[in-house]
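Two records follow; treat each independently.
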Amino acid sequence: CRALGVSQDAHHSLRMQRDMQRIGEVAGLAAVLAPQGKSRQVPFEKLREALQSSGAVPETQTEAPPDDTFGPDTKSSSVLAHDETNLAAWLEALEKAPASESFDAPWHLYRAGKEDLQIRTRVLSLLESPNDLASWRAAAIAALWGESVAAPRLVKAIQERAHATENSDGDRDKTYRCEVPNWLIAVSLLRLVGAPDSLAVLNELADDAGLLHNARTAIALCCEGIASRHELSESDHEIILEILWKLIESPAPNSLAPPQRPLMQSDFAEARVLEDWSWQIHLAVARARRSLGLPPHEQAVACLGDERALVRRAFQMVCGDVTLDVPLDVKI
């Protein structure tokens, strides 16, 4: 079932009944092949052969990694060779593929550039492209590589409040959209590569009292990432504290939402039960404060007494041995 142990990224791609059937098939075969039921000693080569015989794994699958295990380094037939023909096509797609269409060139370039410095150099050269779409896509790939040179292009997207397409609707009342605006993606990516000089744009962004829940958590986590990677000056320290205060000074417009969140905030009126989700913002702020060497704020400590076990456990990991000595009626 979906409770299987996988990385968070892998889990997002395992949700359909056919996926569950495949998982059951793999688990059943692995249980048969495991010597005396020892799951960590499954002979993966034999398991792969069995899955190929059943059709679960294509026989064109490339050989296993040297240590013969499953995991992020396992070769897949879906990873195309980064020869010059494919590389040229992928780079061209960064510049010419319409913003309204999805395509896999960024993923292939990211994977190939992790190992090939020449490919990485060619993608990074697009950061200075006059084509905004190409430079944006190159910055996203570069940020995933951890390249700090991507930060200025990400900051530009935040400053311009960039959206993916010209037809994107920035109406904040339409809370949950399938399309995430580029400026919000940039905030999340900036967490990986941003330096203290990126804090100014985050501080400006935090001035917007209408920021929705996901934007506030993204900003707080970005501050955590910057503080964790860099030695901050006293002024940088103060800017982050100012940003974090702005994020919790007023509630997000969509903090109260149904347990199963609908796509549109306009649907909230029909919900019979509303749940307070602002604890997630306070969790992100508490993490950022911890990265500064500071104790959790009052609202975060209050969450240690939340009636939801999931919430209590999350804050126990962040708050550590902090004693719950604040009134339980403190509003979060």
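The next record belongs to a different protein.
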Amino acid sequence: IEAQFGLLFVVSLWRAIRRRDRLAWSVTLVFMPIAALFAIQLADGLAGPLPRWLPTAGTVFLLAQPVFSLRLVADLRALPRWMLPLAVGGFAIAATLLIVSTGQPSLPLILVAVAVFVVTEAVAAGYLALEAAQRRGSARSRLTIAALATAGLALAILVAGAAAATDVPATVSGILIRVIALLAAIGYGIAFLPPRWLSRAFQASEAFAYHERILASPPSAEPGDLWTELARATHQLTGASVVILALDGPELRVVGMDGVVIPEATTYPAGALAAAGDGTGGDAVTRDLVARTGLPFSEAVPVVRDRTTVGLVYLLRRRASLVGTDDATLVALLAARSANLVQRRQVLAEQERLSGQLRLTVDALQAASAAKSDFLASMSHELRTPLNAIVGFSELMVADAGDADPLTVPREWVDHIRNGGRHLVALINDVLDLSKVEAGRLEI
């Protein structure tokens, strides 16, 4: 069991060195006392008996573990100002009594040390449970497991103290303590250092639930409504205040937010997108958002669609997050699904707009065609009458003139008028018949 805590300490230390943030070091300190105790026991077994003060130092260091747990909680949420100093004071009293005692510690001294350890650890477990109650998804599960592991460690020390004060056989109490401590070690590993497959399982369940929820949104939902839903879901899942900036032409525009007050008309140059997504926090967008909200911890999660960054989801917190990396991965997954759905909705909206324009154009053409047909059908008499007069009088001119009667115009001209008029009458008759067919006025 001590070896498992030692392994947790090594892994957490490696992550703390890589990430270089306060919260990672706080997690490392939680495992450090038990890992130090394991190292002392290992050295005692390999190098022979150690100086008496070294095991005592290991026991004193073990009493500091609840203080480190409470310090971790203070990094996650607000605590009363007097709580952490009180815990440090209790540890100092118990440690002083152990250090000044000679020989085997007396039963009252053991009970005092156990009481200080159990109470402080129970308080830390309670606050972790309260923080879990305010979260959703993988964050809630991991914080709940961390609370149970912390409570389990307190229970193991409590059983050890009860065994020392009673006549419980050492074999029975030892087995019970080791089982509880083993479960606590497993719980700490899941909560603070979960394997990748477990993190993906947590994320997959939340992503599926969110995907089902946004697909159930009405087809009339605007892209802004979908971004706002992403902001609301992200706020609930991560506990962070959320600002979503989407690329809108030559600038970044606020399209959704939750847990924070920022004017939605706020815009930033599109060139700030690459700088904001580099994770350094030194870009102008991050500085402006931190100044507006007063929330010092920020993280920019890119919104990627078709391998192109189309926006940013800013997670703004007053304190660091225990599951910040998992939160960022989950938010990136949700944001990608939202971006794809927004694109599909925009494509459908554009198709519907074009269909509406085409429908209006077809209706206008049909109306124009109907008006033309009605006009021609109604004007048949007015069109035929002048032509009939032209053709008829040209025929009279030809028929009545005779060979001896001189014409004022050449006969060929009159023939041209007559033939052209007849041809034009035939064409107009055909057009008028087609117009009557279109207008529904043709009589068979």
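Discussion point: The CA atoms of residues 223 and 345 lie 7 Å apart. How would you locate this feature using only the token line?
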